[in-house]
Amino acid sequence: MTHQKFFLHIGMHKSASSFLQRKVFTDENKFFSNYKLIVKKKERAAISKIVTDYSKKKISLKKAKVNIKKITKNYSKVIISHENLLGYHFSGFKDLSENYNSMEKLFDKPKYLILFRDQPDFLYSLWLHRVRKGIKISFSEFVTNKNFKNLRVKKTKNFVTNYKIYDFNKLFKPYLKILNKRAFFFNIKNIKNGKDFNNIINLFINEKKFKFPKKKLKEKVNFSRKYELIYFYLFKNARFINKLILLSIIFINKYILIFLKFDKMRYKHDHFSKISFFYFDMINFFLKRGLIGKNFLNEIDLMKKKIQKYYINSNRTFYKQINRR
Question: What CA–CA distance (Å, rounded) separates 285 from 192?
Fold first, then answer.
């Protein structure tokens, strides 16, 4: 039986996971021709289910490893990229230690890659993603909810969180114990620095020659989050007029300008199109210059500063640890 080495990119959410899965760990990258890459949704979900089922003792260790083998085949080196493996923030990370202990056994003490971003920016991005899903509450309401485990919340689009549960020293505690041996951290604010990015990937997969083109590091996988921000601003401040405009845009795009084909880029709402982006860009022009929405943007900035202040000391401790390389 082939002995396998596992390399797990486990999160966090909203921290360049899509970029890694669609641009870096791909079959198109010849560097990984002898690796089994688990990056597609179906396979990632299957791996996640195995980890969960084993954690909850629904299957034995032997059965779990057999199921993993079915997915990973006979490849000696396997990269799994799935941000859910770290733990789920919308359940208050209740499965954090269980996931770690399970992965240690299932993958025979693998290597871990954790990409992250500072809490204010992470939570802001998470909120905008929920806006895309349909949530209708402000950034402040979203990150200060006491029901952060989302008990009795029927619709996933309404999941909320609390900024006080994101202490990196607690979330990453087991991984910090194996820091720079089997666990590697990378702040995505440095992702455009080709040297730093290539260095962390080489450390992660125990290679020396991996090199990702600097030009490709600047490529965007998803559309700018500014459109969710503008959509929410208009929903709160010009709901009925905005709805009428967006319905008109949907009608024009579907029935009048049908020759303008547009890839929705995984956006849920029908109103995201070339025409609506032009409309949103006009609103963004006024928003950026402070001609409208001053209080709206100020509320977001104040909440970000509050989160930053809350973590200033704990983050100092965390960065001190991970920078000892």
Answer: 26
